[in-house]
Queue: 3 jobs
Job 1
Amino acid sequence: MRAARALAVGAALGSAAGAVFLRRRSRSRDRVELYFDDGSLVTVAKGQPEGERLLSPARELLAAARG
Amino acid sequence: MAPTADALAHLTEISSQIDAAVVLDREGTVVAATVDDERAGRMASAALELFRRADEQRGQELVQLDAVLEGGSVFVVRDADRLIAATTRSEPTVGLVFYDLKSCLRSLGEAPVEKPKPKRAPAKRRTTTPRSRTTTRKKKDESG
């Protein structure tokens, strides 16, 4: 009985930790969000064809600011 | 130059999320910055390059952008003839940062038009001071 309860608690905690990990991982993925004057938003992420072209000067900008 | 520096100082004062900011014109010339000249120049050229590349993405005109990077975020906002670029730490409140940057740019746009602004501030002091003095004198006159 105790073993079953411990197993259930462990599974619940594990799935919660996994969800948090996946969420953080997806959040931290490098991307550029472009806002146009017609109200549209385009997201260009790392790995997409235009991704590195935009992320490279963005990284330079961040590095320059940090000295 | 001075109003721009004031606007940037105000920006970093009100927005604790912004680490560094630079205002530049459409040619990439630094107008004002919260960092030293060397860093400001590098920030300006990178911001201009980023904005130009991003602007080529679609037929529509690009208004603003943010880049989410491993060590922090980068923001660029434009108005008619200026750009403002700023950096923040990781996971900033994106909407709030954009709002603060736009407000800063707007205040810069308004600054040259409202040239009498510096005149208004001393005018208020002049009107309040004599009034208070007049009332005091009147009381003295009445009593005496």
Job 2
Amino acid sequence: MNSGFFVLLALLAVLIGIALRSRTDFGPILKRLFEQFAKLVPRMLCALIAAGFIAELIPKATISGYLGADAGLLALPVAAATGLLVPAGPVIAFAIAAVFAKAGASNAALVTFVTSWSIFAAHRILIYEVPLIGASFLRLRTASAAVVPFLAGGMAMLVGLISSYGAPAPM
Amino acid sequence: MPPLAFLSDPDWRRATLADAFGKSFWGFLTVAALTGLACLLLKGPEAVADALVHDRDLLLGLLPRVVVALSIAALIWVLLPRERITDLVGRDSGMRGLAVATLAGTVTPGGPSSAYALLAVLAVSGADRGAMVAYITAWATLGLQRVLVWDVPFMGAEFAFLRLFVSLPLPIVAGLIARRLPLVLSVKDAHGERVQP
């Protein structure tokens, strides 16, 4: 996780270097930074707190019963819906995925779950997407990407028919 | 003019405060209070305390990232030549535009704060809607940093590769769908006016 932060810091340093060399006026840059920060951070605080509570409330044990190989195609919509409901960052989402994997969830269900979470995680929509881009983009994007988790899960299912590659090794 | 002159502009201060603590802020606060209440009633005070401690740790880790990511986006916002973006991923960029957007999303480092802040820059620089959808879908499903930092350690390299492999074409599929959907998209441009990419 920290490695990612260092990448960002390095990128920031390079960009500041470029701005200094081209004698860019920092006024508009700082103004944009303050505006985006004001838009983001107060809502982020509330959304994070709500997300933490919702993550406590999700019935993980009940759901994992529906994700096994014997659940067949039904596992995909259940996994996709669960991905929608995890309003939290990767720590919690992947911890839940590992719980499902240990409980015997199929590869296709796990792929669907992770993909659905990564595309539709509710906290990300509320904290970042709506304040920074707007509701009309959210509508367009969700309508366009709604099939993506199912396509990913379906493809994983097809791969499963011809090969056993891709078995999870949850920590 | 000193770079922080805008801070003493009363109109700017009022508008920014209204943005920060507007209607949606109170909506968020209400949802947080309601979920907290549900958690207290269904799971008891310990679960509430657990969640709050976790939130605090998350927030302390997150704030520096958000500041750095927004600084990067603000710098790119000013430094990036807008015409170049229009050429690369504009309305007439076709499949190549979707492929470029997918690649950009895949290599964008950092979490949602950097990806969405960059998307906001793309949106007002003439990127087309398909490219915007492809970019964020690629960042979400193919993002290399997430695969390396989260998929591999939590789920194992084999599963991570399987997920990456089956997801490869999907950002472009989503982008193609976005170009055909009859939905109106409008975003605020640099001067706060609504434009339709």
Job 3
Amino acid sequence: MREIMKIELKRAFINTKFYIVVFVSTIFAIGSFFTTPGFTIAKNWFLYMNGDLDASYIIEKCDYSDVAIEIWMPNYGASSKFYFLWLIILPLLCIIPYGITYIEDKSSGLINQYIIKIGKGKYYVSKFITLFISGGTIATLPLFINLIICSMALPFGLPVRSTQFYPVKEYNLFSNLYYQNIVVYLMLYFLIYFVVYGLITCLALAFVYFEENKYMLLLVPFIIYFSEHVIISFGFNRYDTSLLLATNIINLRYENILFYLLQIIVLFLFDFLFFFRIRRDVI
Amino acid sequence: MKKVLKIIVVIICFLVIARIAYVNIAYPAADIKIIDEDEIFDLKNFSLRLKEYDIYSKEEWKQKLENENIELEEEKYNVIYNMNLKTVLLEMEIIGFIF
Amino acid sequence: MNKIVRISLIIILIVSVLVFVFNTFEKYFKEDTNVNEINQENIELNFDYKNSIVDYYSNPVKDMGEKNYKAYQEKLMGEDVYVCYSLESPEEKGYSDYKYYPVRINITDYEIVDSYDGKIDEKWVDISDYDKFMLVNIEITNLYDKDRLYVLSVNEVIHYLEGTELDRYSLIAYNFEDNRPYFYRKDIKETMKNNGQYYYGEIILKANETVKLQAVMAYRGGDYNFNIGEWVVEHRLFGERANSNYKIYLYKQE
């Protein structure tokens, strides 16, 4: 199992498509930094530290220090065009490096060799896990890059609730943790992103039995994810509770958490359809 | 080619870490500091010394307010703020002051 | 089977994209309505208040739905209270979710006086704590050719008023020259920058109208005294936590 995992992970992470996706994600992360009000704040501080008079005038009236978390990408939500566009196309980005390898293996016959050597179960499990890891990594990467960029611009400190600069309010999930231990909050944040987008990416595997066209398969997670967002936001009018918006737990409220968990459970079950069809899969 | 890329990556990592370190050291502190009595706190144009203070826990403060009959401003003057808004418009006759 | 799945997926995608595009860019498809044209019949007032009204930066017409928003205005106008929201301005740069619309703010003059006997909107402010008052005369002109609602906030006053010490004040009243009624809510963004609170006076400005008012600020002109009061005190200098209430007095070092 270890060998097959190594091989598949190498296949997922050491290929051109992965590098291209990382490059595109970096552009989104950098674009988000420069096109939000956070850039103005960071620039102001930079000028102030270098002795600019106008910046000093503004900053010396303040008794607080802006922190990196304040200008982080998800804080600006839909108002940041780069961030929102990235959120919409994220399933496409996640699936490109590794998503269609199952179909490719099947059509090239490689799958037979794998199954003879290691058995069906291990092969499918390794495929699933690798796609999950690949999708989750690509989803969290721009957030991490953006956080690094913000940390290069402003010091890393605790958010202060009473300044009201932060979008996390008392009705949002883990709000106390956000203001008391931001590092743990960030770790949870990344974990949730990793898991949810990993599961979304694995939808492609669940659909391999219905869809044999490679390119259509690339679109499947995106279609389900996007249409789910549209149905929930505009159909049921429950804005901020779709997977697209609520995975950013800064937006997620305690009252919506059950609905959100329900979506994740449905997603999880959907993904496991992949394993149920194994027996009937004809190679 | 690969070696060159590796060197570039190492240099970029080093620059990023150096910059992050510099920002966290040189910029005004973003930490929340806890200062003690009689500790001197230097700001740009003047210094402060905390002469006297009382610390209350959340419950003690609540008790103190009750003892002194200090009401929450929202309840006393019937004003609505962001955080306390939970009810539907129809139930609220108190949409701020009516002149 | 495969064909059915494929076709359904494509249809779902097309429909979702169309719905999304339409809802996101709705304002380009719809015509703006004049605030004065309010239909008084068949008004529904049952909407969820959560995300819409008191959020200064949201677009209430979009959040509440146009009919409900008009109904809300209507209900409040009937009670002589005007509620105002700034609608989107194409001229505002940078802060894309701060929705202002163009107005001209003219600070005509200001003076610092020793006493003030007029009305006070902010009743929690103990004006005996302050030793002076700053009376700022302001003219606001609606640059749009349609009626608009406007949220006046004292930060705009500060922004345009230069050369004064604005560190230690609390806004306590708006006095409109034509005595128009207005609604205000307290903004609890408490920052040590001004040692006080921001307030909003919300008014309706007709097309191209100019309104004159005076903002009254209780002002500490003397020694550097922090009097943080009984509200949330969370300040980076002193290590307190959110939702805790402290009374702290500080003195300049002798």
